[in-house]
Amino acid sequence: MSTVVSLPVNNDVRASFDRLAARVPQVSQSTAEQRIARIRRLMAATLAARPRIYEAVKAERGLSPPDVDGELVMLKMEAEHIEQNLADWMSDKSAPPSLMTLGKKCYLHYEAKGMVLVLPSWNAPYVIGFLPVLGALAAGNVVIVKPSELAPQSSRVMAEIVKEAFPDGEVTIIEGGVEAATALLACPFHHIFYIGNNTVGRIVMRAAAEHFASVTLEMGGKNPSIVDASADVEDAALKTSWGRMCNAGQACIAPDYVFAHESVFQRYVDALVREITAMYNPRGEGFDKNPEYPRVINARHFERIKALVEDARAKGAKIVMGGEFRAEDRYIAPTVVTNTTPDMKIMQEEIFGPVIVVMPYRDREEVVSYVRKHDKPLASYVFSKDRESWEFFLKNTTSGSMVLNHNVVQSGTNPYLPFGGVNHSGIGRLVGFNTFAECSNARTVFEEGPKVVDPRTMFPPLTD
Ligand code: NAD
């Protein structure tokens, strides 16, 4: 896999920033129709590039077209939602009157923040990269995107798409790696969208502080899934097999570990193995022979995931399924791990690969106390038929999102459902109105009304 070489150095990055900044006054005044036209151009160029997109993601992660279409459908749904709602979002929002403001006009006026930077990750590059762009355009901003260097073919295709849609550079792609990201972060953007791990999230937030840029940080972590004693075990195993193994586990909201009640633990593990096999090795020829089974993005991530499993194995974990690694094509067999202990790295770091840990539990308080002791997750899942049990987990834990009796489906299925994390897993919300709001300034406007009382009665000297 080649690395992206068209790396602009600092001066070029700053020049691109300045060129775009000069357009802010004009673009921020654009009408809903003009903004929708920009969104349509981006969508048309993206959909027209489908053959190039398929080729890129096949080379990068071994994904097949239907998986990639899922990404494009999410983008299309978002674009259509914006089209239907933008005029309403842009309209001023009146504040209800108070005694002190009777006769005055008080409202919120949404205006563009101005310059928006998008630093997306590589694991679903088109939706992760372009979804914030759609919202930023809807809000009347100009945008620079630096796609992830970990998916260089997709980075190149994204650059081509943007060039086709915006020959005038209103949206600009700057390709490159950490050096390009660092140079961009030195520029005085007004809002930054960052999607990636939280180590870099900290770097982004610190850099943003230099210019008091607002940030939307979409990060990851370890997402728990809980299967209680009342759960439909087969259903839980089926859905978790898909939730964890699609995109070879390289999804921020994929379940990372499962707590299964001790009364259903073994049945659940057996069902998980069965369902993963039925899904990704249906003819028994081997997971690696299935053209639909994806690969890990690069050698670094391959070695990282392998090290997590090897460390667990060495410390006494049981590899119930999988545990096979082939560096040459970055193949990792779907892997199920049990008998883990807290000292294992697999219990401390986000796995972000086709590996899942299953642990038995006896008391639900045990689960709650474990989850609460760790960073607040991006997503959590509960499989249960018991309403009281679901509500117990809902009330006693926190996460960016929580799902009952399914997983992963809270993203990309409903433009009214905001997406985001909490503290370590994220700051801010994406999707629909939320993205628009993140890169808008909701300006407070107060218009004085007709003169009813002499304003002097309100001002000093008050004793008169
Ligand atoms: P990545 O390595 O591609 O990084 C994302 C961006 O940060 C890239 O543009 C990269 O160039 C830039 N970057 C990397 N190091 C940098 C540095 N030192 N300084 C400045 N910029 C730098 O992505 P990743 O971190 O490998 O992505 C995987 C992570 O992203 C996982 O933790 C996953 O959970 C998370 N993720 C979250 C979401 C979400 O919506 N919450 C979505 C996808 C992925």
Automatic annotation (TrEMBL):
The active site is at E218, C252. It comes from Solimonas terrae. It comes from the Bacteria. InterPro entries: Ald_DH/histidinol_DH, Ald_DH_C, Ald_DH_CS_GLU, Ald_DH_N, Aldehyde_DH_dom, Aldehyde_DH_NAD(P). This is Aldehyde dehydrogenase. Pfam families: Aldedh. GO terms for molecular function: aldehyde dehydrogenase (NAD+) activity. Belongs to the aldehyde dehydrogenase family. GO terms for cellular component: cytoplasm. Residues 11-445 form the Aldehyde dehydrogenase domain. GO terms for biological process: aldehyde metabolic process. Keywords: NAD, Oxidoreductase.
